[in-house]
Write a structure and sequence with these properties.
Radius of gyration: 22 Å
Structural class: mainly alpha
Number of domains: 1
Order of helices and strands: HHHH
Number of strands: 0
Number of helices: 4
Helix content: over 70%
Length: 75
Amino acid sequence: MTKTRELIDEAISLPVEIRTKIIEELFRSLNPLQKNVDELWAQEAEKRVEEIQTGKVKKIPGDVVFHKLQDKFSS
């Protein structure tokens, strides 16, 4: 645990720009990019936008959705 504390203390003493870079890299290591998944989500988003623009699907306001969910799960 001492080495961990030393590492944290050393990191804290670094300039903000370097700390920010370290944080970004650590976060990225916890959540690695999944290019194929990201591409699939992008395709799905584009499909849904097109469905809305062409009138294929009907938009439901968020407050209506949340009220329905609240009614469904509050009883």
